[in-house]
Amino acid sequence: MNSKVDIQKRGHRFIAVDGGSQVGEIDYRAVDEETWAIERADVDADYRDGNLAVELLDTVVQEARARGFKIIPSCEFAMEQFQNNPAYKDVWRKNPKLEE
Fold first, then answer.
1. Residue 72 to residue 25: CA distance in whole angstroms
2. Nearest-CA neighbor of 74 among 5, 28, 35?
């Protein structure tokens, strides 16, 4: 990742900023008092060769751990990462019953 990229929290999302421009984001929503659903992750094409999307995901995971929350990986990217990385096992809420 480019050392100039800064990850910032904005409401229910984290954004990646490089030189004052947003270059990536990951959005999540509260499902209940102790669960978040990751709904979307997006990184600008120029930043996809690195690990920026994973760093954004890790930032959400770290905050969930700090709060004792679980995560539902609702978007394709998050689901693929959760399935392939055992480090996310402790925060993964599988087979949730979502009430919209």
1. 17
2. 28
Give the residue among 72, 68, 66 at the shortest CA–CA distance from 93: 72
Could you list the pLDDT tens digit for every one of the 100 residues in the chain? 445 899 999 999 999 999 999 999 999 999 999 999 999 999 999 998 889 999 999 999 999 999 999 999 999 999 999 999 999 999 999 865 554 4
- 3-state class of 21 per DSSP? strand
Q: What is the CA radius of gyration of the chain?
A: 13
**Nearest Cα to Cα of residue 73 among 65, 85, 82, 64:** 82
Alpha carbon separation from 41 to 7, 68, 92 (Å, rounded): 13, 22, 17
